[in-house]
Amino acid sequence: VIATMRDLRKKEKLEEAAGPALGKTLSIQRLDVCSDSSVAECLGSIPGGHVDVLVNNAGVGHVGPVESISVEEMKRIFETNFFGVVRMIKAILPDMKRRQSGHIVVVSSVMGLQGIIFNDVYAASKFAVEGFCESLAVQLLQFNV
Predict the structure, then answer these.
(1) Which letter does DSSP use for residue 57 in this model?
(2) What fold does the segment set 50-143 form as a domain?
(3) Which InterPro entries does this chain map to (predicted)?
(4) Can you give the pLDDT at residue 23?
(5) What is the pTM of this model?
(6) Closest CA to 130 of 86, 64, 77
């Protein structure tokens, strides 16, 4: 099992939770879902090169009225919450399809189904994830993914 995080300086709590599995059946690696090169580097370091289960859990939020957030900040939220999911799935999907095996788990939010006041951009990014995954799930049935 490989646990990943964008900033390894924050790994202490994860290491504590891992207990004796750390270094044996669990390793912690750097992965920034907003970076193609980081994704490629992390996936390239996997022994055997196969991902059997991908759990997409990266996410960022913003609370406040829409006029308080810049378009650049909105793009950053979408880059992590939506394009990060897309980037990871695109990276592992060809091998899963070829092997006709694999599982993709995407952690989303109730705000991907219903917007909540002052969470406009976050909700929009999660709605995008929901639509993407619903469409993809139908396509991937034929590949046993």
Answers:
(1) -
(2) Rossmann fold (3.40.50)
(3) NAD(P)-bd_dom_sf, Sc_DH/Rdtase_CS, SDR_fam
(4) 85
(5) 0.87
(6) 86
Q: How many residues would you count in the chain?
A: 145
pLDDT at 141: 95
Name the phi and psi angles at 14, rounded to 5: -65, -40
Position 112 confidence tier, pLDDT thresholds 50, 70, 90: confident
- The token pair that represents 113 in the structure block: 């189904």
The type of residue at 117 is: I
Nearest to 109 by CA among 141, 85, 136: 85
Q: What is the pLDDT of residues 46-71, one digit of tens each?
A: 888 899 999 998 888 888 899 999 99
Catalytic residue among 18, 122, 123, 145: 122
Q: Give residue 27's pLDDT.
A: 87
Distances in Å between the Cα of 124 and the Cα atoms of 23, 78, 89 are 38, 8, 20
Give the DSSP letter of residue 58.
Answer: -
Rounded Cα–Cα distance for residues 123 and 133 (Å): 15
Extents of the domains making up the chain:
50-143
